[in-house]
Amino acid sequence: MSDWYNQDSYTELAENDIHIWLNYLNVHEARIKHLYPLLSNKEKERSERFKFYKHRKAFIASHGFMQMVLSYYIDASAGEIEFTQTELGKPSLIEKQNSNNIQFNLSHSGNIAILAVCKQHALGVDIEYAERKIEWQGISKRFFTPNEQSQLFKLHESAQRDAFFQVWTRKEAHMKVTGQGLSLAPSHFEVTVPPSPAEFIGNMKTVDNHYYKMKDIRLPDMFKDYFACLSADFDFDNITQFIHS
């Protein structure tokens, strides 16, 4: 599952498989001008609300990338894709363009965007850039469960920061697969802590009888400062990974 293929290696998406797509966002201005028209009117409006150009650029690049990739799977070309969303804000494709019931989830951080695609089932994906300056110790004490904190701070000091980002991507991926997003407090459920493989352990406050399968995404060596995780509500057979350019 650690192999990454170029976009020309795209193959049909099997019923119980997931495709992961990776894209570099720090692109030339000419590329941004090419991608901007692909965005929906709502996406264009959102892009205009960013105060800083670098954030607007990342939004346009990531959503333009998403539009291009989704066009491989549905009954619409890039630039014609229409979205709807749940009350909690999770986007989905409109039914008339989505005869194969394609489901997707997008995340971006730093200069990288990641997109997960499958059929029929919910999924969530998250990527985090570990070199950005944040108070990760304080965040873990505020948003991790007592057991997660205990496991994290038992690790050798040199391993704690990377483990924090792995736990955070696991939590974000789970929050997204449930469709609840930020309305599900990260301290209200528990995931495994490295070196244990990614796994959803359970909710601390409410009952959730859904099945979830979680997988850390091993990124290419050139992106060693990033961590990513996938969560889905079905027992997927395989992940195929592509780099889009």
Automatic annotation (TrEMBL):
<dbReference type="InterPro" id="IPR037143">
    <property type="entry name" value="4-PPantetheinyl_Trfase_dom_sf"/>
</dbReference>
<feature type="domain" description="4'-phosphopantetheinyl transferase N-terminal">
    <location>
        <begin position="31"/>
        <end position="118"/>
    </location>
</feature>
<dbReference type="GO" id="GO:0005829">
    <property type="term" value="C:cytosol"/>
</dbReference>
<dbReference type="InterPro" id="IPR050559">
    <property type="entry name" value="P-Pant_transferase_sf"/>
</dbReference>
<comment type="similarity">
    <text>Belongs to the P-Pant transferase superfamily. Gsp/Sfp/HetI/AcpT family.</text>
</comment>
<dbReference type="GO" id="GO:0019878">
    <property type="term" value="P:lysine biosynthetic process via aminoadipic acid"/>
</dbReference>
<dbReference type="InterPro" id="IPR008278">
    <property type="entry name" value="4-PPantetheinyl_Trfase_dom"/>
</dbReference>
<dbReference type="InterPro" id="IPR055066">
    <property type="entry name" value="AASDHPPT_N"/>
</dbReference>
<dbReference type="Pfam" id="PF01648">
    <property type="entry name" value="ACPS"/>
</dbReference>
<keyword id="KW-0808">Transferase</keyword>
<protein>
    <submittedName>
        <fullName>Phosphopantetheine-protein transferase</fullName>
    </submittedName>
</protein>
<dbReference type="GO" id="GO:0000287">
    <property type="term" value="F:magnesium ion binding"/>
</dbReference>
<feature type="domain" description="4'-phosphopantetheinyl transferase">
    <location>
        <begin position="123"/>
        <end position="215"/>
    </location>
</feature>
<dbReference type="GO" id="GO:0008897">
    <property type="term" value="F:holo-[acyl-carrier-protein] synthase activity"/>
</dbReference>
<dbReference type="Pfam" id="PF22624">
    <property type="entry name" value="AASDHPPT_N"/>
</dbReference>
